[in-house]
């Protein structure tokens, strides 16, 4: 169980992004902080006036996670990327199409321009950014024009040279008027190259020049001009902050790093897609004391990318791994395009690897207790169950339940747990077809027969494991002896041998014990095994009830319309689309009904007469 108050104590006083999850483990809020410790704690302090939206959000938070960054600036960019990717419910202020600005240099033109844009286009221009401050971008572009006198107009040059008078920028010395032919293309290109050097990070030349100009203005008692230079220096320094969180190359790559403490290791993976860090994940590993980082990373890459559905073009690693070329070849074959494993030595990519390593270390040092609790709730609970039943090697468990209302629309549910955690992709639901009335035993027999017959057929066809194809190590039935015997009979008929256990409830409909091999086994109500069985039983019941309610609701709506003479699927659909509910159809006049595309006079009269 995630203990919020305990986890708050572990928060670092560093900048980063925090991610709030609800009871369904969906991301409901992403925020940034200059100090994660101070910011996240504020949400859970009752004395603070948080506002209605935040108060409501806090009631839904069941756990939070965070990513440490090197600066608040990086946290802001990462926050934007994560919000765009996950669209959290409570980030309403950031749900618009606002994007961070780029500086674009149109190097493909004979007389290039420098401008601010909001998106990168696939053209021959050079882009720099994105930047978090539009004001700083505008100041920098203004500075570039003042220092290098680069044009800002949309004139087509050299086609339009001499056609119009020079604009105001020429007269205030912010453009050398290439539109008049006052500067050659060669000289103009030299200024453009200086601009590109500046935007690539060569700031010293510009800063020295500005500082010198500021000092000269100050000595000449031109204080207003000196202040102007000082403000421009501040703008340059602000925009010069390199943003490691966003890679303008627009590539897909994974950044891997690792932290080790004794026999525990954490591998942190940053997922960069289209040049943006859209998320991360960390993976716990148990390693031998003598195992090297190279061996651990190599083992992790082979295990992780064997099962992941997408492999990027590059993996960035903190150090070279064993069998690097062989693993590259393997990943290339899986992806269908070349995959590179690289160890960056400098620049943005190296900083990203360092950032991933920092987060891995943070996770390892702060989450050890949470990991142990999580392991106790899942794998530990399964081991307790194995000991209780005397079974070894339980990985996959399937639980079944039946739901109906007085025999109406009976349905069956199948929920799947692997290693103590729900595997929702493998959940299945069944409409009972061959049983009339409220006969739970017969309904369960039908569900299990269909499930395992389907699974055997898929296995014969050689389908990949999953869904019906993968068979459980243990079947859990919602009930006692009767339900267990039904399951055992189905398995015997199909020639299968799978342990079956009944989840027995008391008179108050709470889990009481387990029925296994004709014996009811009591469970310690305080044990993790008991809590896991209760969760599985509740989940099977919830899944069945939800499906049943959906079918019952659909049937109630459709059955009334189906009873109207002359109303088939097309007219029924028209009625449901046009009117909010059955009551609105009942109150409609013949003239209103005739307006529907599929209705004629007779059909409209039939509908009206049916309700009147």
Distance between the termini: 58 Å
Our Rg estimate from Cα atoms comes to 33 Å
Major sheet: size, sense and barrel closure?
8 strands, mixed
Strand count: 19
Low-confidence stretches: 92-98
> What is the percent of helical residues?
40-55%
Summarize model confidence as the mean pLDDT: 82
Basic shape = extended
Continuous helix count: 20
What structural class results from the helix and strand content?
alpha+beta
Strand content: 15-25%
Structure description:
45% of the residues lie in helices and 18% in strands. The chain has 612 residues and is of the alpha+beta class. It is extended, with a radius of gyration of 33 Å. Helix 5 crosses helix 9 (223-239) and helix 14 packs parallel to helix 15 (481-494). It has 20 helices and 19 strands. Strand 17 (500-505) and strand 18 form a beta hairpin.
Task: Map the helices and strands.
Elements: H1 4-9, E1 16-21, E2 27-33, H2 36-43, H3 52-60, E3 63-68, H4 72-86, E4 102-105, E5 114-117, E6 126-128, H5 134-148, H6 168-171, H7 185-199, H8 204-219, H9 223-239, E7 253-261, E8 264-273, E9 276-286, H10 293-307, E10 314-316, H11 324-335, E11 340-342, H12 347-366, H13 368-389, E12 396-405, E13 408-418, E14 421-422, E15 428-431, H14 440-460, E16 474-477, H15 481-494, E17 500-505, E18 511-516, E19 519-522, H16 528-562, H17 569-578, H18 582-587, H19 590-594, H20 601-611
Parallel strand pairs: 7-10, 10-11, 12-16, 16-17
Antiparallel strand pairs: 1-2, 1-3, 4-5, 4-6, 7-8, 8-9, 12-13, 13-14, 13-15, 17-18, 18-19
């Amino acid at each position: 169980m995630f203990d919020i108050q305990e986890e708050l104590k572990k928060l670092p006083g560093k900048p980063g992004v925090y991610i709030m999850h609800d009871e369904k483990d969906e991301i409901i809020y992403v925020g940034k902080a200059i100090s994660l410790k101070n910011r996240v704690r504020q949400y859970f302090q009752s004395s603070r006036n948080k506002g209605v939206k935040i108060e409501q959000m806090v009631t839904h938070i069941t756990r939070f996670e965070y990513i440490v960054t090197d600066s608040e600036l990086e946290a802001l960019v990462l926050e934007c990327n994560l919000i765009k990717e996950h669209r959290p419910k409570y980030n309403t202020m950031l749900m618009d199409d606002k994007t961070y600005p780029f500086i674009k240099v149109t190097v493909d033109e004979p007389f290039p321009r420098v401008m601010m844009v909001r998106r990168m286009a696939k053209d021959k221009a050079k882009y720099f950014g994105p930047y978090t401050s539009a004001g700083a971008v505008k100041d920098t572009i203004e500075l570039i024009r003042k220092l290098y006198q680069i044009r800002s107009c949309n004139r087509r040059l050299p086609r339009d040279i001499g056609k119009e008078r020079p604009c105001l920028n020429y007269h205030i010395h912010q453009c050398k008027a290439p539109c008049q032919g006052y500067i050659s293309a060669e000289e103009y290109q030299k200024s453009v190259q200086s601009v590109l050097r500046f935007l690539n990070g060569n700031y010293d030349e510009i800063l020295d020049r500005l500082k010198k100009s500021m000092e000269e203005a100050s000595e000449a008692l031109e204080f207003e001009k000196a202040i102007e230079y000082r403000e421009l220096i501040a703008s340059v320094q602000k925009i010069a902050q390199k943003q490691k969180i966003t890679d303008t190359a627009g590539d897909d790559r994974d950044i891997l790093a690792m932290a080790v403490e004794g026999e525990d290791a954490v591998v942190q993976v940053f997922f960069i897609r289209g040049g943006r860090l859209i998320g991360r994940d960390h993976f716990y590993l148990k390693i031998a004391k003598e195992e090297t980082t190279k061996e651990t990373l190599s083992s992790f890459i082979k295990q992780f990318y064997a099962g992941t559905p997408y492999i990027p073009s590059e993996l960035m690693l903190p150090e070279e791994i064993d069998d690097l070329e062989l693993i590259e070849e393997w990943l290339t074959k899986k992806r269908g395009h070349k995959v590179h494993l690289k160890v960056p030595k400098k620049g943005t990519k190296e900083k990203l690897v360092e950032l991933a390593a920092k987060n891995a270390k943070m996770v390892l040092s702060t989450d050890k207790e949470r990991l142990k609790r999580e392991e106790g709730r899942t794998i530990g609970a399964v081991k307790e169950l194995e000991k209780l039943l005397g079974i070894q090697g339980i990985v996959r468990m399937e639980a079944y339940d039946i739901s109906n209302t007085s025999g109406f629309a009976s349905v069956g549910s199948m929920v799947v747990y692997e290693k103590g955690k729900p595997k929702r992709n493998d959940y299945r639901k069944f409409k009972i077809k061959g049983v009339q009335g409220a006969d739970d035993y017969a309904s369960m027999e039908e569900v299990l027969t269909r499930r395992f017959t389907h699974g055997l057929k898929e296995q014969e066809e050689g389908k990949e494991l999953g869904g019906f194809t993968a068979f459980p190590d243990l079947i859990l039935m919602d009930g006692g002896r009767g339900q267990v015997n039904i399951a055992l009979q189905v398995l015997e008929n199909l020639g299968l041998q799978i342990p079956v256990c009944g989840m027995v409830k008391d008179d108050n409909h709470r889990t009481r014990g387990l029925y296994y091999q004709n014996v009811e086994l009591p469970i310690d109500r305080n044990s993790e095994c008991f809590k896991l069985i209760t969760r599985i039983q509740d989940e099977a019941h919830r899944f069945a009830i939800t499906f049943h309610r959906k079918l019952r609701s659909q049937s109630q709506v459709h059955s009334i319309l189906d009873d109207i003479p002359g109303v088939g699927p097309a007219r029924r659909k028209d009625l449901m689309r046009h009117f909010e509910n059955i009551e609105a159809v009942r109150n409609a006049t013949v003239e209103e009904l005739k307006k529907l595309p599929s209705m004629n006079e007779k059909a409209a009269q039939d509908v009206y007469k049916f309700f009147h």
